[in-house]
């Protein structure tokens, strides 16, 4: 339990600070209500359409490819930890691993999965 | 904390996943439930890895994650293809052939 | 970190197949217009090299990668069976992929990757390598099952296969996790050491893990009650792929199951025999009885393949030398006869009309005698009629069962085999004793590659049926080396 006290203090300070700033702002700040201020902030301009609409499938494609390549990278972490112990073999095997990934990238590129239109 | 805590949480997660796969109709949700099962397995593996004091379990988790990502890619592609063809992702409406 | 070294020889078949798969992908994207025959030939040459590499480890058993991989007679024999099956699958597909499906280079590459996964399953002696092999195989097959994208059955088949497959992987993994937690290792030799000291029922958690693993493997080999996907998937998948799934994927599942079961053997009462007994009996009865009612030949073959998995389980249950060698002999002959049967369907089908209902086969003997004779041979072999290989294969398995004391199970097997005669011979009757219907759809033109593949399969079931002893003694050597 002692170990967690630091964490609890951290959370308490974080929440407390937020509350203090918010409260001070309510107390001291000038109040001039106005319609534009109630609109969600979107790069400073008025929103052009409702959020939460369907996205085109092409975004899904990019997202899933990102996930695939991104998650392969978790192998780099344990590799980096033991790299010095294993040496050249580690380097060669990681090169092969990356080469396979590059081949996958070349494949999706050629097949047109990265075409935006 | 004793290892039982982790194992019980993992078992509950796994059961939620199994129940979800068996009862939900939306293919995406079914798929999420399968992912939940895999993550319950990951939690179990990591807990055991700490318990038996070797890293085999954690290495296994890496492979489970990779395989899960590959399955996601194939599975979502299939769901998109099915939706384009049948305009539905409800598993009980994907039933040209008897189960 | 000392013993870290690469043993290229031990994983040679897997490596060759992986490189071949990548080569096909590269060729496919660099020369999209490449003639499919050329690409097919490259794949076949690669398979030949991988086949020779698999033979290499027959005499030269070795443990590699810290016990994760074992290249021995077992992995050698199974890899050869997988590569033979994949070769015949490619043979069936060569003339077809272009007209029926797009992107044939992807199709070939996926078949090659699936085969690589199978070889990994046969040589893996760690639950990690077994799992990786299984997933390499499965993910390739999910895509292949849905390869006829415009066909709505195909997508549905692929989707069901995927959902149930991923669900089963979840159980398999949970089982692995529990076993790891109890034994502290995923290495089969260490798990085996645990089982021989504590017994399989030594810990409830271990037994739960064992059962969960059985669920995962049971799905892959499609035994009751995890068989539900098989008929739908076989129906919707491209016919050569149905053949590939029914033979290669099933054989790979059995390879992994056998490795695992050998590790589970202990001197004390193990406690898993009753479970396998019930599963085997239910699978044989259910598969054969439901097959009786099918009018779609692909579905009929699917139920028949479920029933055959039940027969093979007798060998797993027997657990003796004859049982293990019987399983391998059975899987070898089963590969030939089942790919042959699916091959005939594929041979007769055109892009517009799939040749799959019983009425399609009416009067085939007069219109397409080669196809009819070949189909009849495969049906006789599947039914287990001498002198074809299917009979000898059943004979060895059943005698192993009797020797191990499972007389009742063998009686069930024999009775259900007799039931199966009805539907196998029903198809033969349609072909030889019924007249063609007037408005039957046109059959496909002659395709040399498919004819060659079917002829090879026919020749193989004849040779294996008439001269089985040589092969069986080879496989018994293998089985002795395992025990």
Description:
- The complex is a heterotrimer of chains A (117), B (99) and C (483).
- Chain A has helices at 2-28, 35-38, 57-72, 76-86, 88-110.
- Chain A has 117 residues and is an all-alpha fold.
- Chain A folds into two domains: 2-38; 57-110.
- Chain A has five helices and no strands.
- Chain B is built from three helices and no strands.
- In chain B, helix 1 runs antiparallel to helix 2 (27-52) and helix 2 packs antiparallel against helix 3.
- Chain B starts with a helix and ends in a 13-residue tail after the last helix.
- Chain C is an all-alpha fold and 483 residues long.
- Chain C has 20 helices and two strands.
- Chain C has a two-stranded antiparallel sheet.
- In chain C, helix 2 packs parallel to helix 5, helix 14 (321-348) packs antiparallel against helix 17 (389-403) and helix 14 (321-348) packs antiparallel against helix 19.
- Chain C starts with 11 loop residues before the first helix and ends with a helix.
- The A-B interface holds A 57, 60, 64-65, 67-68, 71-72, 74-75, 78 and B 59, 62, 65-66, 69-70, 72-73, 76-77, 80.
What is the structure about, briefly put?
The complex is a heterotrimer of chains A (117), B (99) and C (483). With 99 residues, chain B is mainly alpha-helical. Helices cover 79% and strands 0% of the residues of chain B.
* Percent in helix of chain A: 55-70%
Order of helices and strands of chain C: HHEEHHHHHHHHHHHHHHHHHH
> What is the subunit arrangement here?
heterotrimer
Query: Which residues of chain C sit in consecutive blocks of at least 5 with pLDDT less than 50?
Result: none
Overall mean pLDDT of chain A stands at 83
Q: What is the CA–CA distance across the termini of chain A?
A: 56 Å
Q: Roughly what fraction of the amino acids of chain A lie in strands?
A: under 5%
Integer tally of domains of chain A:
2
Q: For the terminal residues of chain C, how far apart are their CA atoms?
A: 31 Å
- Helix coverage percent of chain C: over 70%
Tell how many strands the DSSP assignment of chain A holds: 0
Low-confidence stretches of chain A: none
């Amino acid at each position: 339990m002692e170990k967690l006290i630091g964490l609890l203090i951290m959370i308490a300070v974080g929440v407390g600070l937020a509350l203090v700033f918010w409260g001070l702002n309510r107390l001291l700040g000038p109040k001039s209500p106005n319609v534009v201020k109630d609109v969600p902030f979107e790069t400073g301009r008025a929103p052009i359409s409702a959020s939460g609409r369907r996205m085109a499938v092409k975004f899904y494609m990019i997202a899933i490819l990102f996930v695939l390549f991104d998650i392969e990278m978790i192998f780099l972490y344990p590799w980096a930890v033991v790299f010095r112990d294993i040496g050249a073999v580690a380097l060669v095997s990681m090169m092969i691993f990356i080469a396979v990934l590059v081949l996958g990238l070349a494949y999706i590129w050629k097949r047109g999965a990265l075409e935006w239109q | 904390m004793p290892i039982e805590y982790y194992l019980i949480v993992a078992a509950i997660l796994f059961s939620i996943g199994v129940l979800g796969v068996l009862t939900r109709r939306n293919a995406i949700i079914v798929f999420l439930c399968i992912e939940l099962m895999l993550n319950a397995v990951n939690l179990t593996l990591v807990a055991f890895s700490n318990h038996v004091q070797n890293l085999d379990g954690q290495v296994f988790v890496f492979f489970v994650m990779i395989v899960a990502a590959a399955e996601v890619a194939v599975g979502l592609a299939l769901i998109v293809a099915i939706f384009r063809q049948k305009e539905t992702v409800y598993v009980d409406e994907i039933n040209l052939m008897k189960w | 970190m000392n013993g870290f070294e690469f043993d290229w020889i031990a994983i040679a078949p897997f490596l060759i197949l992986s490189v071949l798969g990548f080569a096909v992908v590269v060729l496919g994207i660099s020369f999209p217009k490449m003639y499919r025959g050329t690409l097919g030939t490259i794949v076949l040459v690669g398979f030949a090299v991988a086949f020779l590499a698999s033979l290499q480890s027959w005499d030269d058993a070795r443990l590699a990668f810290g016990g994760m991989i074992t290249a021995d007679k077992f992995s050698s024999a199974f890899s050869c069976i997988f590569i033979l099956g994949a070769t015949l699958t490619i043979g069936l597909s060569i003339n077809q992929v272009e007209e029926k499906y797009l992107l044939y280079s992807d199709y070939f590459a996926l078949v090659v990757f699936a085969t690589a996964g199978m070889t990994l399953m046969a040589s893996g002696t760690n639950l990690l390598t077994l799992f990786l092999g299984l997933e390499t195989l499965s993910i390739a097959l999910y895509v292949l099952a849905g390869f006829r994208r415009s066909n709505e059955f195909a997508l549905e088949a692929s989707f069901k296969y995927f959902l149930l497959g991923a669900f089963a992987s979840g159980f398999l993994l949970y089982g692995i996790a529990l076993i790891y937690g109890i034994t502290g290792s995923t290495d089969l030799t260490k798990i085996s050491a645990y089982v021989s000291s504590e017994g399989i029922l030594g810990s409830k958690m271990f037994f739960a893990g064992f059962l969960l693993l059985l669920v995962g493997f049971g799905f892959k080999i499609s035994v009751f009650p995890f068989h539900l996907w098989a008929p739908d998937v076989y129906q919707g998948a491209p016919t050569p792929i149905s053949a590939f799934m029914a033979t290669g994927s099933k054989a790979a599942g059995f390879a992994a199951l056998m490795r695992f079961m050998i590790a589970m053997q202990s001197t004390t009462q193990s406690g898993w025999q009753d479970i396998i007994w019930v599963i085997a009996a239910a699978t044989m009865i259910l598969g054969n009885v439901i097959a009786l009612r099918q009018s779609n030949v692909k579905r009929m073959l699917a139920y028949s393949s479920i029933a055959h998995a039940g027969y093979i389980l007798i060998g797993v249950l027997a657990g003796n030398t004859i049982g293990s060698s019987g399983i391998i002999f059975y899987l070898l002959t089963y590969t030939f006869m089942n790919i042959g049967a699916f091959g005939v369907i594929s041979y007769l089908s055109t892009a517009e009309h799939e040749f799959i209902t019983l009425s399609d086969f009416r009067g085939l003997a007069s219109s397409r005698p080669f196809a009819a004779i070949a189909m009849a041979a495969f049906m006789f072999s599947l039914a287990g009629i001498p002198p074809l290989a299917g009979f000898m294969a059943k004979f060895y398995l059943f005698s192993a069962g009797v020797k191990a004391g499972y007389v009742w199970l063998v009686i069930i097997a024999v009775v259900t085999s007799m039931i199966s005669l009805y539907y196998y011979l029903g198809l033969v009757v349609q072909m030889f004793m019924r007249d063609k219907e007037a408005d039957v759809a046109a059959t496909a033109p002659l395709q040399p590659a498919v004819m060659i593949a079917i002829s090879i399969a026919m020749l193989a079931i004849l040779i294996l049926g008439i001269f089985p002893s040589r092969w069986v003694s080879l496989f018994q050597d293998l089985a002795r080396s395992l025990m």
